[in-house]
Design a protein that fits this description.
With 187 residues, the protein is α+β, with helices and mostly antiparallel strands. The chain has helices at 2-24, 50-55, and strands at residues 42-46, 59-62, 75-78, 87-97, 107-112, 119-124, 130-133, 136-139, 142-143, 151-155, 160-169, 180-185. The chain has one domain (42-185). Strands 1-4-11-6-9 form a five-stranded antiparallel beta sheet. A three-stranded antiparallel beta sheet has the order 10-5-12, with no helix packed on it. A two-stranded antiparallel ribbon has the order 2-3. β7 (130-133) and β8 (136-139) form a beta hairpin.
Length: 187
């Protein structure tokens, strides 16, 4: 009889004891989450030559940016000089890379130039320059494609201006089209 009673109690404890232990262990913590706004680290901004070009009436932004970044949906108006063979605007816009030098992931920026007759868009990771020769005005840098694949640039974590943008246009250039930028960070 004692063996049966002992086996019964052992079985009862084996079933109830884990249930009691699980049921009595409850841990609860509360965590505070704070959310604040921050400027993007990679964004389109006014370039070093924007103030001069703007004062000459050659380029303007609408609405006028209230911070460093030029937000999506801003209209960039470029005015040609009537009767001129070509007008060059260099370093009027830039893709600003504010990431720290310890940032270890590669950043790629793909630009899609507006398809406007008589307007050619240029970009470079170093400031653009204009050369004037017997064959005419030209800009150093990469011509940005208007195709569906655009033109891609690899930006280093420089903590400063990383991609300078400029335009070369004929005096008869006119029209309206979108200038698109895609940012990609590979981890």
């Amino acid at each position: 009889m004692k063996i049966r009673k002992l086996a019964f109690l052992s079985t009862l404890f084996a079933i109830l004891l884990p249930a009691l232990v699980v049921a009595t262990v409850v841990i609860s913590y509360t965590y505070t989450i704070n959310v604040s706004s921050t400027n993007p680290e990679i964004y389109l901004a006014e370039g070093p030559n924007y103030p001069t070009a703007s004062s000459l009436g050659l380029i303007s932004l609408s609405p006028t940016p209230t911070s460093n970044s030029i937000t999506s949906g801003t209209t960039i108006a470029i005015n040609t000089v009537s009767g001129s063979y070509k007008t060059a605007l260099v370093n009027v816009l830039e893709v600003y890379n504010g990431t720290s030098s310890s940032f270890k992931y590669p950043v790629y920026v793909t630009l899609y130039a507006p398809s406007i007759t008589g307007l050619t868009m240029y970009a470079s990771i170093s400031p653009l320059t204009v050369t004037n020769s017997t064959s005419g005005i030209s800009i150093t840098g990469t011509v940005v494609s208007t195709s569906s694949s655009g033109t891609t640039f690899h930006l280093t974590a420089s903590g400063g201006a990383a991609l300078y943008i400029g335009f070369l246009m004929t005096g008869s250039a006119s029209g309206s089209a979108n200038f698109v930028i895609n940012y990609q960070i590979n981890s």
